[in-house]
């Protein structure tokens, strides 16, 4: 379980970094705002990916139990 969460966190960091590099908006002058936005976006992406991943694995396990 710990390895899965670590992998999901790494994926969310990668997606956030790519998103910030590809973003064409004007950057905020304050570094604290930039870091806050970065980590908030990482948290939101991590939460979304985790919800999707664990929901799908739960549903697949339940389907396997009912079909077996």
The computed structural class is mainly alpha
Annotation field: number of helices: 2
Low-confidence stretches: none
Determine Rg (CA atoms, Å). Answer: 16 Å
Oligomer: single chain
What's the N-to-C terminus distance? 25 Å
- What is the residue-mean pLDDT, rounded to a whole number? 92
Strand content: under 5%
Globally, the shape reads elongated
Helical content, roughly?
over 70%
Largest sheet: none
Helix-strand pattern, N to C?
A: HH
Number of strands: 0
List keywords for this structure.
single chain, 68 residues, mainly alpha, 2 helices, elongated
Short description:
The protein has 68 residues and is mostly helical.
Descriptive account of the structure:
With 68 residues, this protein is mainly alpha-helical. 85% of the residues lie in helices and 0% in strands. It has two helices and no strands. The protein has helices at residues 2-22, 31-67. Helix 1 (2-22) crosses helix 2.
């Amino acid at each position: 379980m710990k390895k899965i969460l670590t992998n999901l966190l790494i994926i969310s960091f990668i997606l956030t970094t790519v998103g910030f590099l590809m973003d064409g908006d004007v950057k905020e002058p304050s570094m604290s705002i930039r870091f806050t936005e970065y980590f908030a976006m990482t948290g939101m992406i991590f939460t979304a990916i985790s919800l999707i991943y664990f929901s799908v694995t739960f549903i697949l396990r339940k389907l396997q139990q009912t079909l077996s």
